[in-house]
Design brief:
Length: 358
């Protein structure tokens, strides 16, 4: 009895040690069952709390002011001074149109001015303005009236014929008609030399010719197309020497890269606490390590659907409510270390719990 089997004794000892380990395993499992959901709840609560006082969207894009440059006159393109991606300053020459047709227009307008001035000189020397015709007509009237008086006196005494008396009366009428015609020619000549209220002191014909000259000179100056703003040249592949330029048709685009901003399309439910002047943070998909500070500069006057070409019509029985997006402009407060390109996707966060500045 005293000498027990050592194998049996070892098993008994081992079984004796395992008995107190069972409650520890149960406690560990219970701890894991309750702690894991608790940690998830705590993490979710912390994440939710961190999102309070801010709204964000990834429906945002970099915007830059763009100007489509077109010619104001037609003609053949003879010279191109820019290329794709080139940075230029305002006033720089972009391209030139053949100026020869407009130089000929200037010469034609100058000839028209000379012709109008010569016409004015001719009108100034017209005899109708001198009054010579009027004076001659008045002398004829005086002579015919005197003749009529003599014929009437002779007719009263019976020393003339009825035919001579009628001829004298006819002569007076003809002289009066010649006087009226001379006066009318004088008024007409004065009217041709008159200056209107619109161009005082200058003959209308000369003024019209000068206007044609100014138009021709303006068209000649427009044969050289210059940059209206500073920026980067884009879409310049249309500029090919020899092609015909059509007025109003865009030939290239200038992108004002120095005035970049972000247009973020926020849900309408995110606008409750958003106001102009609130701080914003912008990151870019193209540059993961770049974050720029900005501010809300404007909130759109309408949703994107309101300004679409075909606005949605929801007056039907199967209407489904869709959360609308409102464009919000974010002005960047600092310069980007990387080049911002129009249209880049970005992520915008607006901090709505800070002081609101208008």
């Amino acid at each position: 009895m005293a000498e027990a089997d050592p194998q049996i004794s070892g098993e008994a000892a081992a079984s004796g040690d395992a008995v107190p380990a069972k409650p520890k395993r149960k406690l560990g499992k219970l701890f894991l069952m309750f702690s894991a959901p608790l940690l998830i709840i705590i993490a979710a609560g912390a994440y939710w709390y961190s999102l309070q006082g801010q709204v964000s969207t990834d429906n945002a894009y970099v915007k830059q002011d763009k100007v489509a440059v077109s010619a104001e006159v037609s003609g053949r393109l003879i010279d191109v001074r820019v290329k794709e991606g080139q940075e230029i300053e305002a006033g720089a020459l972009l391209f030139r149109i053949d100026p020869e047709p407009y130089q000929l227009e200037i010469q034609s307008a100058q000839a028209a001015i000379a012709g109008a001035q010569a016409n004015v000189t001719t009108l100034s020397n017209d005899s109708a303005l001198s009054g010579a015709d009027i004076a001659a007509a008045q002398e004829d009237i005086a002579f015919t009236r005197a003749t009529l008086q003599r014929q009437e006196a002779l007719w009263a005494r019976g020393f003339t014929t009825k035919a001579d008396l009628d001829a004298a009366r006819h002569g007076v009428n003809e002289a009066q008609e010649r006087l009226r015609a001379a006066q009318a020619r004088q008024r007409e000549a004065r009217a041709r030399l008159a200056t209107g209220a619109a161009v005082p002191g200058e003959n209308p014909q000369v003024a019209a010719a000068r206007a044609k000259l100014a138009t021709a000179q303006l068209n000649l100056s427009r044969a050289e197309v210059r940059a209206p703003i500073s920026g980067q040249v884009a879409e310049s592949d249309r500029l090919q020497p020899g092609q015909q330029v059509i007025p109003g048709l865009p030939m290239l685009t200038l992108v004002e890269s120095r005035s970049s901003y972000v247009e973020a399309n926020f849900k309408e439910t995110d606008l409750a606490d958003m106001q102009i002047g609130q701080r914003a943070e912008v990151s870019f998909d193209a540059y993961p390590g770049v974050k720029l500070k900005g501010r809300v500069s404007s909130i759109g006057a309408g949703t994107g659907s309101e300004f679409s070409v075909l606005p949605a019509q929801n007056a039907t029985g199967n209407w489904v409510k869709v959360t609308q997006r409102v464009p919000v402009r974010i002005t960047l407060d600092e310069k980007s270390p990387r080049q911002l390109i129009a249209g880049l996707s970005s992520h915008v966060t607006v901090f709505t719990n800070e002081d609101k500045v208008r």
